[in-house]
Amino acid sequence: xxxxxxxxIEENPTEERDSSRGxxxxxDAGFLWDFWYPAARSSEIRGRGLAKAMLLEVPLVLGxxxxxxxxxxxxxxxxxxxxxxxxxxDGTNVECSYHGWKFDGSSGQCVEIPSLTSQDKLKVERIFxxxxxxxxxxxYIWVYMSSPGSRLMETVPRAPKLATFSERYKSTHLxxxxxxxxxxxxxxxxxxxxxxxxxxxxxxxxKKSIHEKAKQFExxxxxxxxxxxxxxxxxxxxxxxxxMTGAPVTTTIDFILPNMRTEEIRSGKLWFSSLTTVTPVRRxxxxxxxxxxxxxxxxxxxxxTFAKTFLKQDQETMIKQAEGLKHNPRLMLIDDADRPxxxxxxxxxxxxxxxxxxxxxxxPMDGPVTLRWRS
Length: 375
Ligand code: FES
Ligand SMILES: [Fe+2]
Fold this sequence. Notes:
The radius of gyration is 23 Å and the shape is globular. It is α+β, with helices and mostly antiparallel strands. Strand 13 and strand 14 form a beta hairpin. It starts with 12 loop residues before the first helix and ends with a strand. 21% of the residues lie in helices and 31% in strands. The longest helix has 26 residues, at 300-325. The strands form four sheets. An eight-stranded antiparallel β-sheet has the order 12-18-17-16-15-14-13-19. The chain has a four-stranded antiparallel β-sheet with strand order 2-3-4-9, with no helix packed on it. The chain has helices spanning 13-24, 182-189, 195-198, 236-245, 300-325, 339-357, and strands spanning 35-41, 51-55, 58-64, 70-74, 88-89, 93-95, 102-104, 110-112, 131-132, 134-137, 140-145, 170-178, 212-220, 223-229, 250-256, 260-267, 270-282, 285-294, 369-374. The site of fe (ii) ion has 4 residues, from loops.
């Protein structure tokens, strides 16, 4: 599998200070806890090496035991706070670099404090490093970010998985950083109206190809679906697919809280599937992770070239937008082109309210609805 593309973004030191000040004051950063997020690519953990990551402003240390189970701990020793990632990992335990306390990677439980004498009564096994459920698939280390200070739910759901529809397929990953709050990244991801302006290209579409569209959406648990339909006929790749199979092309796009867009394109036996997440790293930094799989006869390098172009266009736009957002402008959400963004904010608010009151989550849509826009 080819290497992930990382497009680095220059960080603004002033913003960095501001963001940590907000964090110190305990201001709500608008993150959704108690969900799975991709923390790193699987390839970032090699052998007994430890990898660093950050999710929702929580520093993490990631590793993989000799048995092959990946794990995630808070990158902070419970003794004096030095990052555990400076320590050593022997395949089972992480040893802190400061006083050598050892923690079991799979549970975070302290197993040894070298300074203790036989007289000491301290119950070592009652000490835990911060520890998070971890799963590894689709080439990602997924970490379940349980809310700070809460007890972990008895049953944690399984981490999201990319849908695939045959034994053999090709796949690839891409990633890029966005200098913005996760909300801006997500509404950008679900935004239907920027295509003709941001993604102009000979192989996709031009400003001139803009035309009116009507798409049906329906509510699904924690999100909404652009109901299965035949995609835009003005896009060359779809026309080609139809020619190859002779069967109609259908596509289904879902958005699911906290941050996930999935897309399935099917035509006869051929399929393409993708999973895109926008993950909050800090309140002023997010990351788009994109993994796709397909059995259509499309070489990985060709697909990557196109996908990179798309992602880069989105990233460049978000960098420009972040420049404007620094000055706290008033923003607008219009009908119908911004309705998916409104649903996202409503889903998020309703989930937060349901959790606060321990009640049922109210879905912002009461049934299927047709949205119309030009793009
Ligand atoms: S700070 Fe980690 S063992 Fe003391
Ligand atoms: Fe885009």
